[in-house]
Amino acid sequence: MVQRCDTDILILGAGGAGLFAALHAHKTAPELSITIAVKGLLGKCGCTRMVQGGYNVALGRGDSVERHFMDTIEGGKWLPHQDMAWTLCATAITRIQQLENELGCFFDRHPDGSLHQKAFAGQSFDRTVHKGDLTGIEIINRLMEQVMALPVRCLEEHRALALIPNRAGDALAGVLLLDVRTGSFRFVRAKAVLLATGGGPTMYRFHTPSGDKAMDGLAMALAFGLPLRDMEMVQFHPTGLLAGMDTRMTGTVLEEGLRGAGGYLLNGDGHRFMFDYDAGGERATRDIVSRAMYAEIRAGRTSPNGGVFISMGHLGADNVRNQFKGMVKRCADCGFDLAAGRVEVVPTAHYLMGGVVCAADTTTEVPGLFVAGEDAGGAHGANRLGGNGVANSTVFGGIAGDVMAEFVEREGVLRDPDKARIDHEIDRTRHPFTQTLGNINALREQLMTTMWEDVGVMRDASGIGRAARRMSELKTELMHTGLANSDPIFNLTWHDWLNLRSLIQVSEVIIAAALSRENSRGAHFREDFSAPGELLSSYFTVARQGERDGVQLYHKPVQFNIVRPGQSLTSEGHTISNAVEGLT
Amino acid sequence: MAELSDELEVAVWQGDRAGGAMRIYSVPQRPSQTVLDVVTWIQRNVEPGLSYRFACRVGMCGSCAMMVNGQPRWACRTHIKAALAGNHLELRPLRNLPVIKDLACDMSEFFHKWQQAEGRFYPTADRHEPVAKISPASPRRAAANKGIECINCAACYAACDVVAWNPGYLGPAALNRAWTLLNDVRDGAQKRRQRAVLQNNGCQNCHSMQGCASFCPVALNPTAAIAGLKRTALRAIRQGQV
Predict the structure, then answer these.
(1) Which strand (E) or helix (H) includes residue B235?
(2) Shared-domain flag, residues A179 and A257
(3) Contact A40 B121 (CB under 8 A)
(4) Residue B77's pLDDT band (cuts 50, 70, 90)
(5) Within this chain, do residues B214 and B131 fall inside the same structural domain, yes or no?
(6) How many contacts does A have with B, using Cβ atoms within 8 A?
(7) Could you tell me how far CA A222 lies from the centroid of its own chain?
């Protein structure tokens, strides 16, 4: 009933991190067998492809790794894991050269042929390499072409279900997968496993990530007993398209450059409200604009669908059409006139800074288990800079490939799995087939509403407490909600159920972390504790799934092993740009 | 609000490689509604076993292309008003690709041909060297840029009659990619690529019927790219380079 196979290296996920890992592992040790398992199609699902803004890298004359690093630390409100942040900034240089010279990406140039680097919010230097506003497509297309040419086994439309220990229960044996196309199970034994499934906070009413994202990687890590850090840090992007609850378009990003270029945000009364909140107006940073929008929405001054408006027409419709071709076309395809009319927008959950605790070489506390990309926590601390997302996944994906290959050659062994655990996970996965027909989508709607209203842009103890109670009810309701269709083949409704299971599990951790951080840093804003807290005694949250279901949460002090608050690595100190343009 | 009470009549092909049939659904019309939303509504409300594929929701991943009233289109970026015939929508899996189930196709052949056309970069420099200085206005780069924004959704491949007649034909997307690479001055395998696109199933099969260009959702013109390949190939043959 369970198909079995063996591989030296198993990579879960085929975005920027997973594909880079495959390339590097193969180059480091060509004789090793590599398997990639991905929930959708290779390079097509996931979020690397959706990167609009670009790739931060200190290449320009006058820029330096130190400056990029300081921007990352200050942007992350002193919470980043400093070794990870340093590795990110330092390795980005060879990685961008690799993308261009070895993979064939072609990024935008100045007329003289040199690489163009644009300004991006929160940075002291124009360092964002890009390909128009479709940087991610260029990166992932070139990557998938290279990986498809390698002797790598690719399990497309295979959903990872669980990390499976060995018989003794003291090491990782492999991963249990579900073949979406056949509905059958597959167990892959591996000497090394990379968790690179991507994050994507789709448990929020409004969200930007790809529709397949459901935090499966973090849910698996939790179930295996791994610690997650910074889980309260969910980044919201201010301008998600709002087109009603019945369309999947809702939540998708309208680019940040619209605000940068001078777009107005208007509330339901037509009032331009941003200057009521911040002197920067619409050009204020993502978190400030998101909170102001949320305050207007909560006060009831909303557009028809419950958001606010973005209005560009005063800049000249033709000019807007010209400058924001892609966005104007996207809105037009959905029936909206961005160039001359008003389009409804709402803050939208964009990125999870939190993830699995790991070291800068992608190792975790479990030997043989590695983590990279949005599944990894620490590099961004309390907030991620636009342009550091795809740098993160490609930098650490490559490192993971190198490190895994060396690990397998040095000490890799195949272990026999705990069969009882495999059986248990199969039962857990098939559970909805044992329950009577229910409305899975209604539960998903309730999850999204709860997280948006009570653990979203602004939080307080009573709201978070309400969410905690609701989450445990939802978990129970899900376990009594079954599937109408009993055919397991390519059954999206079964996968909706499994997605919901992962999302609820990870939401419980976000809730616990949000409750425990009684201050406001970066993306985490507590209305009942609005001060940032002492920088020198900064801590990060760590969560584990307890033996008996509950989430255990504790705090650990940030190690200022490279730079301390009050210091800078750059001699001239720091001026951070307020430029708002594009996003990652 | 009369419009809101209108119902769409949606016919959806369901089946697998062994065969299938159309089933008809009545779907409430909404002001903001794409083909993907229609399919999603059917799956969530009446046909939980309906299989389809999507990921990004915004026209970046090219996972959701299907035949919409006979034309290959992205489901996610096609507003129903742009596709409706009266109040009728007919949805089928992409033409020219083997179906897996219902609206989801097996794309492996499409990507296999991408490789057969040498649709990947062969480096001449490495990660320790600076990025090449190349003017974006130089003629070859400009030619490459024209075709580079392909997201491999296979709409052109589904639109291509030559692929329908000759299933071995590499098709417009793979050849378009080969053309962008032939214009990439950094690439080190041009002779190999020219041989690849000149194979029996290569660029000479194109009849310039423009199906690909007519239906490319990002308005690329693979027909023009293939014409470029033919010209370059002829020149190379005459000069004895291939």
Answers:
(1) helix B222-238
(2) no
(3) no
(4) very high
(5) yes
(6) 196
(7) 17
What Cα–Cα distance (Å) separates residue B118 from each residue in B7, B122, B177?
48, 9, 9
Taking alpha carbons only, the member of A341, A269, A266, A271 closest to residue A308 is A266
Answer yes or no: is the ipTM higher than 0.95.
Answer: yes
Expressed as residue numbers, the domain containing A25 is 1-49+157-233+353-551
Domain-located, residue A342: yes
Computed on alpha carbons and rounded to an integer, the radius of gyration of chain B in Å comes to: 20
A578 pLDDT exceeds 60?
A: no
Q: Please name the residue of chain A whose CA is at the shortest distance from the CA of residue B42.
A: A493
Q: Does B30 touch chain A (CB under 8 A)?
A: yes
| Chain A contact present for B51, CB below 8 A | yes
* DSSP one-letter code for A482: B
Quote the pLDDT of residue A484.
73
- Whether residue A191 has pLDDT greater than 70: yes
What CATH number does the domain containing A257 carry? 3.90.700.10
CA Rg value for chain A: 23
**Per-residue model confidence (pLDDT) at position A226:** 98
Same domain, B76 and B132: no
CB nearest B33 (choices: A97, A247, A441): A247
Q: What is the pLDDT of residues A49-92, one digit of tens each?
A: 999 889 999 998 999 999 999 999 999 999 999 999 999 999 99
Q: Which residues of A are catalytic?
A: 237, 259
CB count in 10 Å sphere of residue A275: 12
Q: What is the pLDDT of residues B134-163, one digit of tens each?
A: 999 999 999 999 999 999 999 999 999 999
Total domains in chain B come to 2
Residues paired with B21 in a beta bridge? B14
Beta bridge partners of B65: B74
What CATH number does residue B231 fall under?
A: 1.10.1060.10
Confidence of residue B204 (pLDDT cuts 50, 70, 90): very high
DSSP H/E element including B39: helix B35-45
Q: Which domain holds residue B48?
A: 2-105
Please state the rounded mean pLDDT for residues A576-583: 45
A315-318 — which CB contacts under 8 Å span 24+ positions? A315/A261, A315/A262, A315/A263
In 3D space, the residue among A179, A221, A177 whose CA is nearest the CA of residue A199 turns out to be A221
Which of B52, B129, B141 is closest, CB to CB, to A101?
A: B129
End-to-end CA distance of chain A: 42
Q: How far is A261 from chain B (nearest CA, A)?
A: 22
Q: What's the pLDDT band for A573 if we cut at 50, 70, 90?
A: low
Within 8 A of B131 by CB-CB distance, chain A residues are 59, 96-97, 100-101, 107, 115
Stated pTM of the model? 0.97
- SS3 assignment, position A253: strand
Asked which of B81, B105, B129 is the last residue of a domain, the reply is B105
For residue A580, pLDDT beyond 60 = no
- C-beta of residue A14 within 8 angstroms of C-beta of residue A43: yes
Q: How far is B204 from chain A (nearest CA, A)?
A: 24
| Same domain flag for B222 and B177 | yes
